[in-house]
Amino acid sequence: MREFFSRPLIWPLLVLILSVLIHDSFFRAHDIHLPKGKFSLEAKLLLKDPSKNKLIVEPLKGNALLTDFSGKIQITTAEPIPASWNAGDEFHFDSIKLSKPAHYQNPGGFDYRQYLYRHNIEATAFVSNLSTLHKVKDHTHFFVEAKNRFQKRMTRWIHRDPNKEAGAVLIAMVWGDESHLSEETNELFRKMGLSHLLVLSGLQFVVVAALFFKGLLFLGRIYPKVYLYGWRQVAAVGTLALVNIYLFICVSSPSVMRAYIGISCYLIALVFKKDRDPLNILFLAALLILILNPYDLFEVSFQFSFVSVLSLILFQPTFKNKMAIFFTKFGRFGNFAGNLVSSSLAVFIGLGPLLLFYFHTLQPHGLWMNLWAIPYVEMLVVPLGLAGLVLAPLVPGLAKVFLWMGLKLTAFFLTVLHGLDSFLDPPPLFYPPYKGELVLYYLILMFLFFRFSSKVKWSGVAILVLILVSEVGWSFGFFKPGNQFSITQIDVGQGDSLLLELPGHKNILVDGGGSAYFDMGENVLIPNLLYRRIPALDVVCVTHADTDHYLGLQTLLEKYPVRELWWNGFVSEDERYNQLIKSARQRGIVVREMTKGMKTKMDQAEVSVLWPPAGMQQKKDNNESIVLQIKVKEHTALLTGDAEFPSEASLVEEGLLQSADYLKLGHHGSRTSSSEMFLQAVHPQLATAGLKEGNRFHHPHPEVVERLGQWGIPFFRTDRDGAITIHFKEGGFLVDRFVGEKVFILRY
Q1: Are 89 and 113 in the same domain?
Q2: Does 227 score more than 70 pLDDT?
Q3: Is the residue at 185 inside a domain?
Q4: How far apart are CA 625 and CA 440, in angstroms?
Q5: CA-CA distances (angstroms) from residue 49 to 147, 310, 634?
Q6: Is 94 exposed, middle or buried (0-12, 13-18, 19+ CB in 10 A)?
Q7: Model confidence over 618-650: pLDDT tens digits?
Q8: Which residues have C-beta within 8 Å of that of residue 104, sequence separation ≥ 6?
Q9: Contact indicator for 568, 628 with CB cutoff of 8 Å
Q10: Is 669 left (phi over 0), alpha (psi -120 to 50) or beta?
Q11: Is the CA virtual torsion 646, 648, 652, 656 positive or negative?
Q12: Which of 32, 136, 245, 512 gives 553 a disulfide partner, CB atoms 3.0 to 4.6 angstroms apart?
């Protein structure tokens, strides 16, 4: 413990980290006033990401519409980005419309707007046709042109091989160009727990540096006298030069720069014969990285790299010593295997909670997969690819031989992965740890692996484990009464998704939002359910066939436990909707057609279907929406889907409505819903709507908002409040907003 904190660089690093955290908590993404409509723009290209069709540009001065705009713009293109476009080039946009970055404000969700804000990106835009962009100035540097030509040449050589997948993987592994990878290949590596191999990181730089450095030291053994003249330092200088050349060849990215800084710190320490303590070098590298860009602290790749190396330094020696009795029996091979197993275990122990926190999954087979995959790739595939790169300008024929060998080894590697994928189950989903639980976990590791007296160590571990178990138990509701009733309007942008948590730990999800360009189920619904520690959904109800209500449910049904699916029984012209119902049946989910008059008892809750009647087929899907009434003791909630005036009128005329405590506004508060007659019949005590900020439909309509105000109905909306959770209490309702303070509304 004392030895760890005695390193001189740890204190400035901790002060810098604390300063960044404080700054980020106070200076959140702020409102930016963007020009309305389309306009022309002159901008300089700062960064391009061909794999995601994204450009980062900076507006040039002189545009009268952007006088108050000081940030960058992220542009997504519908077409591939030309290789001839490079950082520094200036462009003219004939017509562009800026938008605020989209974000979904839910507990446990990823704040995309804040992420972009940390990179000084304050607006986004979509360009469907690249012909509207014109390069007006070419600022491509000679060295950048040479680099691009070299990369194109290497890519052509590799893609001559008929195995395109192997070529794409080799290119990604060796110089970091992920633009050739298919989504299927990315998914394969994710399922195997090997996605880190596709990202150029510190591991490749370590391999490059280690092989070259060891090679130079081996040459020195031929002429031992060179060691009298500081051959070790000469080898370090030569290795540093090679690392710089490799950096130049690689595709530029923040993770590559971080890896370069880390290995350079170690080599420079060798050159100057300074302290080569790995902890000090790690702290120095982290300090330099955060000084250059403080917001790298929030980058997942930085956290993973830092924690992985720290885990190797702190935990690997202990594991190796514990395993020494077994592995020393096998000589050199045993020593190699012991290092590999202890290193993998150390990284797994240190990195596991972060993997759960960010990705909600742990591949059980990832540990043993990495035991053989890492040495295979880093000791065979990558060195052959690097040899091809280095020799290409000097001996092209020999370079092609090395690349061919690298391709064949990569193809064999992929064959093995595809074979394993055919019988391995997909990785299960896990609940992400809360931040407090992460802190407790790492404190427990600190007590276990740092030097303390036996009494202090085990007392500390026992106390922390007790606190952690209590916190986990509370979060799972073990200490809470099972008769609670709450409804959450999840923020899915312009769409609906409501989570009903009923007595007896019953859970219903009504609708799932949806977007053609964004997987709402994968990125919003599943993370939200996992964060709330919902083990399964008893019912998923899709009210009707509008994409902003059902499209997010496809991935949810594939990956989350669901017992029943409710729908209105109407076949849609949208084949994706019909496929949703079909795939639910194929997965063994009970599919129920819900029509007027049907009732379901779920513990203390009674769920009634008020609409639509059996056999009804409207010309407009909105009035086919399932309307649900939920009763729990004295509380009543009414969920109306996208029901409009015709449905509302029928419900009133047939006497199906009664007063409700809570109303989910029909059709997002549009002008064609929430009529005076309907509100009078329901007389809700509060209402919510699912909305996207600045949506093109201009929901909610001012007339509806005014009508709610006249009736004295408190109105909450996801575009302003984020996720809205209504807790039904005796005597009132506690409204917990993701953005803003909690509000208690008295029941009358």
Answers
A1: yes
A2: no
A3: no
A4: 47
A5: 16, 30, 56
A6: middle
A7: 556 799 999 999 999 999 999 999 999 999 999
A8: 112, 491, 492, 493, 523, 524
A9: no
A10: left
A11: positive
A12: 512
- Asked if residue 279 belongs to a domain, the reply is no
Mean pLDDT score, 414-419: 94
Pair 574, 469 in one domain: no
If one compares 547 and 255, the residue with the highest pLDDT of the two is 547
Number of structural domains found in the chain? 5
Mean pLDDT of the region 104-116:
91
What does the pLDDT read at residue 229? Answer: 66
Domain closes at, from 114, 140, 166:
140
Judge if 94 and 123 occupy the same domain: yes
pLDDT for residue 642: 96
| Same domain (yes/no): 495, 519 | yes
* β-pair type (562-567, 537-541): parallel
Rounded-to-integer distance, Cα 190 and Cα 193, Å:
5
Whether 572 and 632 share a structural domain: yes
In whole angstroms, what is the distance from residue 482 CA to residue 490 CA? 22
The three-point CA angle 287-290-294 to 5° equals: 150
Q: 54: helix, coil or strand?
A: strand
What length is written for the chain? 748
pLDDT digits (tens, 9 = 90+) for 470-527: 888 887 777 666 679 999 999 999 999 999 999 999 999 999 999 888 899 999 999 9
Same domain, 126 and 52: yes
Contact between 95 and 85 under an 8 Å Cβ cutoff? The reply is: no
Binned at pLDDT 50, 70 and 90, residue 617 comes out as low
Q: What is the pLDDT of residues 481-496, one digit of tens each?
A: 667 999 999 999 999 9
Note every long-range contact of 144-148, with CB atoms under 8 Å and residues 24 or more positions apart, other chains counting. 144/86, 144/87, 145/86, 147/248, 147/249, 148/83, 148/84, 148/86
Distance CA 614, CA 593 (A): 9
With cut-offs at 50, 70 and 90, classify the pLDDT of residue 28.
Answer: low
The C-alpha atoms of residue 689 and residue 718 are separated, in whole angstroms, by: 7
pLDDT, tens digit, 9 for 90 and up, residues 76-103 = 999 988 878 888 899 999 999 999 888 8
Ramachandran class of 668: left when φ > 0, alpha when ψ lies in -120 to 50, beta otherwise: left
Residues 464 and 542 placed together within one structural domain of the fold:
no
Rounded CA separation 108/74 (Å): 25
Full residue range of the structural domain in which residue 453 is found: 435-475
User: What's the whole-number mean pLDDT along residues 606-617?
Assistant: 89
Residues 149, 135 within the same domain: no
- Identify whether the C-beta of residue 446 lies closer than 8 Å to the C-beta of residue 350: no
- Tell the residue number behind the tokens 């026992």, with chain if given: 462
For residue 561, the model assigns a pLDDT of 96
Domain membership of residue 106 (yes or no) is: yes
Does residue 245 form part of some domain?
A: no
Structure tokens at 331: 């000589």
Neighbours of 448 (CB within 10 A): 16
